[in-house]
Design brief:
Oligomer: single chain
Strand content: 5-15%
Strand order of the largest sheet: 1-2-3
Structural class: alpha+beta
Helix content: 40-55%
Number of helices: 5
CATH architecture: 3-Layer(aba) Sandwich
Distance between the termini: 39 Å
Low-confidence stretches: none
Number of strands: 3
CATH topology: YefM-like fold
Length: about 80
Amino acid sequence: MKQISITNARKNLYSLTKDVVNNSEPVLLTNNSGGNTVIVSEEDWKALNETIYLLSVPGFMDSIRESDASEWAEYDPKE
């Protein structure tokens, strides 16, 4: 993950946020007094929250693990 000081981020905020969105790559903003921050795109933020929600649903992961793998073995993406 790219790191940049908050001071430098302030100077280049527009290009920094543009890069975060275009590259889907978070950036760590460092602060000398502690309390670093991470910038992520809105799309990535929503995806992370959706993943957290799905993982919090009781039995969700168990149902995925128990799915019949043989169905996928016969799957042909060309069809």
